Amino acid sequence: MIDLPILNQPETAAPARPRKPDWLRVKLPVGPEYAAVRKLVDEHKLHTICESGNCPNMGECWGAGTATFMILGNICTRSCSFCAVATGRPTELDLDEPRRVAEAIALMKVKHAVLTSVNRDELKDRGAAVWRETVVLTKQLSPSTTIETLIPDVKANWGALETMISGGQEVISHNMETVGSLYRLVRPQGRYDRSLEQIRRTKLAGHRTKSGIMLGLGEQPDELYQAMDDLVANGLDILTLGQYLQPTKRHLAVAEFITPDQFAHYREEGLRRGLKYVESGPLVRSSYHAERHVNVPV
User: Fold this and answer.
1) Which residues have CB under 8 Å from 211's CB, separation 6+?
2) Which of 119, 125, 248, 254 could cross-link with 152 by S-S, CB 3.0 to 4.6 Å?
């Protein structure tokens, strides 16, 4: 018997991507405090992650006196599938950067500074000396400014970690980014257990600890609850939960848009499971309301 082709068979359509919901729309930044910071940034050609990352909370954070700066260049040695930062082998190490960042923070009269960086796996100390010097100089020039450092994975270089966290900052953050089952997809060069260990060691050193997880990558609620339990067991104080948004078509697509009600539920779950503070909402990013986190009891 000869199989004849079936005529007029509809083509298989690609699964439709979820549309961005209304709750992810934000108002344009306004206010005198925002305008003052905006003027300084433009006049002195300062670099903030708030701008380069098109953060939806830029106006609110700048109005509250909070700004986020990235150190150690703009080329990352990792290739995470959610992040738009360029991947490659960095060729420069600017040892004068700590001074310039500290002066910029003083110039902007920042009340709470968040420092972050790319991964510098090619450096023996993972960039730890620059991290510490930036915090120390910022404290010298702006004694009343509080600091959060959002540090990268040190790949179990625990000596580098000790240097990174010893500058006198009030909050030390390391983002888990996702749940354990999605690590190979989202952070292929990271390890779930290693990031937990980094948080555990930071807490044992007596610091206020913080981490962040993106939602909407395909995680299940039970997996998020397990991650919360793992973080509590390893000494985490503060957790941020926000909606993942695809930066370009080359990056991971959004699997799901989490509703504001579900974010509110996750916040309550996190507190019930032992976290001291949970910032949870569609527009929450790592440094959202960061100035409030310095008051969380250690």
Assistant:
1) 173, 174, 175, 176, 195, 199, 231, 236, 238, 239, 240
2) 119
Within a domain: 100: yes
Query: What is d(CA 132, CA 98) in angstroms, rounded to the nearest whole number?
Result: 9
For residue 239, the cross-strand partners are 211, 278
What residue numbers bound the domain in which 150 lies?
Answer: 30-292
In a domain, 77, yes or no: yes
pTM for the structure as a whole? 0.85
Q: What angle do CA 68, 205, 66 make, to 5 degrees?
A: 15
Residue 13: what residue type?
A
Nearest to 204 by CA among 148, 241, 161: 161
pLDDT in tens, 10-49: 444 445 567 788 777 766 555 666 666 666 666 655 555 5
Does 166 show up as a binding residue in the annotation? no
**Residue 286, annotated as binding a ligand:** no
From 287, 294, 284, 295, select the one nearest 68 (Cα to Cα). Answer: 287
User: Is residue 5 a part of any domain in this protein?
Assistant: no
Phi, psi of 59 (to 5 degrees): -60, -45
Contacts of 85 (CB under 8 A, 6+ apart): 74, 75, 76, 118
Query: What is residue 70's three-state secondary structure?
Result: strand
pLDDT digits (tens, 9 = 90+) for 131-153: 999 999 999 999 999 999 999 99
The verdict on whether residue 142 carries a ligand-binding annotation is no
Distance CA 234, CA 202 (A): 9
Check the annotation: does 61 bind a ligand: yes
Per the annotation, does 83 bind a ligand? yes
Domains identified in the chain, total number? 1
Identify the three-state secondary structure at position 167. Answer: coil
Whichever domain contains 185, its CATH number is 3.20.20.70
Q: What is the pLDDT of residues 88-123, one digit of tens each?
A: 888 889 899 999 999 989 988 889 999 999 889 999
Cβ partners under 8 Å of residue 188, min gap 6: 79, 80, 81
CA distances from 90 to 48, 75, 120, 123 (A): 20, 6, 8, 10
